[in-house]
């Protein structure tokens, strides 16, 4: 019944285009949003869906950057990084996140590693995580280390080749940086201060109903692990909380149900100018769908005990801020 009401509300919202904000990017198809607040500006890093209406798989050649200072008007910087930026990479530009540290911006990306055999031009060695670096939030970015930071042969708990995707980075209060990622299982590892080397062994765990797309952050004294999940029907958004960045993680439940016209969704969470925002994607633009997705944003609210209230998906989006 709740899902029926949600669909009805979304349909009603679509009749009010003058008030509609979601999806926030309408001229191209975007996915996997990752917000970053730097000074007084919110930067948004996204994937880019270019599959045709008839195609039945992802076609994602690059990553894009947008920014806003009022949550209403979005500046489009276009493509700022692509799979071709990494000499070792091939395939698609999957979910990514950019973080700021020590005067530089580090863009952690997921793609595939090219087969080392030059005669096998179409082969690959599985999904891998790379990192690009820039002095500015909009680039130019370049490959920071000339090789994958995480390669498929470093994680053997999953048998499929696309398990090393969807990186998210969290920097704790003590300045220790952590990288989380994974499809099928979630992994974490400490990063060195230079953000381009591992500082610990890889730890593997699997939160309840976990599929992919982790997003980790801290609010007050509580750590949050939010992720795309199986729920009752892929994909929903569920989450866990913990007293530290490494757990132990306590399952808390579903906070976002299925999104319109897309089997996937992906969380990106940030506080900006006194409000909490939840970014995600759906397939609600005309001719949109599973492989032609669009980024949206709605408000995020917390209960007094720190648990997250269910996300209300809207076409109206969020109000402007000064």
Task: For the structure shown, list the relevant keywords.
signal; mainly beta; polysaccharide degradation; 19 strands; four-stranded antiparallel beta sheet
Description:
Residues 1-20 form the signal peptide. Belongs to the glycosyl hydrolase 43 family. GO terms for molecular function: hydrolase activity. This protein is mainly β. 4% of the residues lie in helices and 43% in strands. It has one helix and 19 strands. It has a four-stranded antiparallel β-sheet, with no helix packed on it. A four-stranded antiparallel β-sheet has the order 5-6-7-8, with no helix packed on it. Strand 13 (210-219) and strand 14 form a beta hairpin. The radius of gyration is 19 Å and the shape is globular.
Major sheet characteristics: 4 strands, antiparallel
Unreliable segments of 5+ consecutive residues: 1-18
Q: Total helix count?
A: 1
- Report the end-to-end length measured between terminal Cα atoms: 38 Å
The order of strands across the largest sheet is: 1-2-3-4
Q: Kindly report the average pLDDT value.
A: 92
Query: Helix and strand succession?
Result: HEEEEEEEEEEEEEEEEEEE
Query: For the CA atoms, what is the radius of gyration?
Result: 19 Å
InterPro entries: Glyco_hydro_43, Glyco_hydro_beta-prop_sf, Glycosyl_Hydrlase_43_Enz
Family: Belongs to the glycosyl hydrolase 43 family.
GO molecular function: hydrolase activity
Organism: Hymenobacter monticola
Summarize the structure.
4% of the residues lie in helices and 43% in strands.
């Amino acid at each position: 019944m709740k899902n029926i009401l949600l669909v009805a509300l979304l349909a009603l919202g679509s009749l009010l285009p003058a008030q509609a904000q979601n999806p926030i990017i309408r001229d191209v198809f975007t996915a996997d949003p990752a917000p970053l607040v730097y000074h007084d500006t919110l930067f948004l890093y996204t994937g880019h869906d270019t599959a045709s209406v008839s195609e039945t798989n992802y076609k994602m050649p690059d990553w894009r950057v947008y920014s806003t200072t009022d949550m209403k008007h979005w500046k489009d910087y276009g493509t700022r990084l692509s799979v071709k930026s990494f000499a070792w990479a091939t395939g698609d530009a999957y979910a990514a996140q950019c973080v700021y540290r020590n005067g530089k911006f580090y863009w952690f990306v997921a793609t595939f590693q090219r087969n080392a055999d030059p005669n096998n031009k179409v082969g690959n060695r599985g999904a891998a995580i790379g990192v690009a670096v820039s002095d500015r939030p909009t680039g130019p970015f370049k490959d920071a280390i000339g090789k994958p930071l995480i390669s498929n042969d470093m994680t053997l708990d999953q048998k499929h080749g696309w398990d090393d995707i969807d990186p998210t980075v969290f920097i704790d209060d003590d300045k220790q940086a952590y990288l989380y990622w994974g499809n099928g299982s979630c992994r974490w590892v400490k990063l060195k201060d230079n953000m381009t080397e591992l500082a610990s062994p890889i730890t593997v765990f699997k939160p309840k109903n976990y599929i992919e797309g982790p997003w980790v952050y801290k609010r007050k004294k509580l750590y949050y692990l939010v992720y795309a999940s199986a729920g009752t029907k892929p994909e929903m958004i569920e989450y866990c909380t913990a007293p530290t960045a490494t757990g132990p993680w306590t399952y808390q439940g579903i906070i976002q149900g299925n999104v319109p016209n897309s089997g996937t969704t992906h969380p990106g969470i940030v506080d900006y100018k006194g409000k909490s925002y939840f970014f995600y994607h759906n397939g609600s633009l005309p001719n949109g769908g599973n492989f032609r997705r669009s980024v949206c944003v709605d408000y995020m609210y917390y209960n007094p005990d720190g648990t997250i209230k269910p996300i209300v998906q809207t076409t109206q989006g969020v109000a402007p801020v000064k």
